[in-house]
Amino acid sequence: MSIAASLEVINSTGTSIFVAEIDQVNDDSTWNAPASGTTIPDGSSISFGMGNSSFIPLGCGCNFQFVNAQGQAGNIYMDVPAFGSNTVTGASPQNAFLYTIDNPNGNSYVVTITAPADFDDMIVLPELSLTRTAMAANNGNIYIAWIGVSDNKINLMCSTDNGQTFSNLYTSEETSWHAPALCSNNGFFTIAWTGMDGHINLATIEMSGEYMNGNQITGFTGKIRTKHTSPYGPALASWGDYGIYLAWTGDDNHVILAHYADPATQTSRYESGETSSQAPALGMNNVNFFIAWKGDGNDNLNVATGDPNPISGEVKFGDPVILPETSPINPALAYDWSSSRMYLAWKGDGNDNLNLMYASFSAPDGVSPSWSGFGNKLISAITSGYAPTLCDTAVNWYAGMPKSKVLISWPHETPLMQNYINVGTVRS
What we know:
It contains no helices and 34 strands. The chain is mostly beta strands. The strands form 8 sheets. It has a 5-stranded antiparallel beta sheet, with no helix packed on it. Strands 27, 28, 29, 30 and 31 form a 5-stranded antiparallel beta sheet that branches. Strands 4-1-9-8 form a 4-stranded mixed beta sheet, with no helix packed on it.
């Protein structure tokens, strides 16, 4: 008894997928499936046939397994028995993919794979990171920084198309075990990192091109090795022309905040009574700064606010709001200027799902601006074993400017245990 079937797989996920493995179902005698490792670009498809012409009635079919560049896996199972009904199904952990199954005729099936991504415009950089990343934006340029996996060196790349692509890789001779921090201050980019000796360093990123428009990174200038030490990486934020805010977790786990008029001039320092076993995060608009951290002895996320003093640079923050959300590692903050939202992102506790919430800033009475509590929680199907990073594409947004957007970045471990850097856009 002769039986034949065919399967066409159409990739509409927004990124390339890769054949992981294709197993035979039933006793297939005319197998012509693509090899493991075959790339199926977005918008492309592959087709293959299967069949059986044995004397004893036997069926055919396949179990098509694939992964995308983010390491998310899926499979299409097809069983065409000699007797009975055919079975064609699609599945994936955490519902990372959706499947549309068409049966144009007989035993021929067309399966279209789509991805209900929680982030838009996702890209994968051809770079590997040892830690979470850092991002900052100004005047249409977006910088991303990370620690190299093989040499612990700080690496940077730049995007000049609003985060659609990154290029101009620069690898410094500075090294760290921890993620660096970036911020844009008055048109210049400042970078901070914890050196191999535990001391926090500050420097200005040197670039070619006109003021505020350079995108070719040429080095670090004005490096300052501060007296501050930390077992973790630092956090950075800036407030217009009023300098830089540096936060870190001290050797005694106290959360500390300092103000710098420039990378070489510290004006104030505030050691809080709050403690954490990870690095803090900073976010700022033109009214308040936000600082977030995970608890010490617990995984609850804490968020506090403070009012920058533009005259003295004095910094301090109030009592935190202790959220019920938890994470074993540090969170991320970014203010979306065009929607007046402060976003908080973190990696799940007991899982690797990326999570997002936001608080809104408004003045209902037209006079007294205030913040709503954090809410509108999103649990993404996208996973990472590392803390995410957030960045708004407009540092000082005002009416009439193109709408800004919030970028999210995360390293994702592929099946080959490689931590490729991913970047996407948060849906507002």
